[in-house]
Amino acid sequence: MPWQPPSKPGAQLAEPAGLQEGLVIAGHGRHVWVETPSGRKVICHARGKKSQTVVGDQVLWLATQDEGTIEKVLPRRNLMYRQDEIRTKSFAANIDQVVIVLGAEPEFSDGQLSRALIAAAAQQVDALIVLNKRDLGTLFAAAWERLAPYRAMQYTVLATAFKPSSDTSVVQAADDDTDRLRALLTGKTSLVLGPSGAGKSSLINRWVPQANVLTQEISIALQAGKHTTTSTTWYWLDADKHSALIDSPGFQEFGLQHIAPMDLGKLMPDIQAQGSDCKFYNCTHLHEPGCGVRNACAAEPSPISPVRYKIYKDLFEELSQKRY
């Protein structure tokens, strides 16, 4: 969590001499890679038993021989994390947007997509959806149709055809949104999420051809030769360091236990839009009379898709379970 001042009024802790600023660009356990404003990369470790830093954190660190220690995590603008019944997993901070990459195949999960969108909304972070494998014809058309409810909610949904190739000269489909996506990434820090096989790595390799080399370099540095990779990695998109991608592992489960069930509807645009017509201010949208959401679901055509309403009901029940 962000550094907080001492609780006792007037009791200020002295800053250690020699503190330097840095950006966390990768991490594993208690060790992280910190990049300085000059571009130097330093292995740092947290004080204490557990690291509280994540990729994207701005930190103050103190040099210790050829490495360093994290002395302070500066206040964050936001923090993307997921939480289930067992643990909380934080993976990126200070981002401008979330880019969710889906594929025409394998078939994507509306539930996982919705969870990622809800997590972004909870942190007041914009989200856009990239549907990859534009070249798959009928499979892509079916997947594009499934995303109609999200386009109706004013999410930006883009069509791409990134190929799993290190060749940056691969020609994209003439009618895809690759150039538009590149423009939307410019000047921003974007967290890239997506299930395995959707084309997330191909997207990153398109604009960061050295991504695999950088990942291996970071892994070796942090793991002292062990063959394990970092879970989340920061890549610059331009020499001026105005744009960046944060690559996060493919998600299978995206726990939302940190969200109160009564806040869920406010984080789902289609539910929120109809919830303003509810008779009761504390309507759960499940059984109350005069519920604007349930009335909208019964309308023909309905502004809320059956899939989305089922996701809302299932999540509300999940988040309402007693927590231990």
Any overview of this molecule?
The two termini are 22 Å apart. With 324 residues, the protein is of the alpha/beta class. Helix content is 26%, strand content 23%. Residues 1-13, 165-174 and 224-229 have low confidence and may be disordered. It folds into three domains: 20-73, OB fold (Dihydrolipoamide Acetyltransferase, E2P) (Beta Barrel), CATH 2.40.50.140; 79-247, Rossmann fold (3-Layer(aba) Sandwich); 261-320, Probable gtpase engc, domain 3 (Ribonucleotide Reductase Protein R1, domain 1). The strands form three sheets. Strands 10-9-8-11-13-12 form a six-stranded mixed sheet, with helices on both faces. A five-stranded mixed barrel has the order 1-2-3-5-4.
Blueprint (SSEs and pairs):
Elements: E1 20-28, E2 31-35, E3 41-46, E4 58-64, E5 67-73, E6 79-83, E7 88-93, E8 97-103, H1 110-122, E9 126-132, H2 138-146, H3 148-152, E10 156-159, H4 178-185, E11 189-193, H5 200-207, H6 211-223, E12 233-236, E13 244-247, H7 269-275, H8 292-298, H9 306-320
Parallel strand pairs: 3-5, 8-9, 8-11, 9-10, 11-13
Antiparallel strand pairs: 1-2, 1-4, 2-3, 4-5, 6-7, 12-13
Question: What is the compact description of this entry?
Answer:
With 324 residues, this protein is α/β, with parallel strands linked by helices. It is 26% helix and 23% strand.
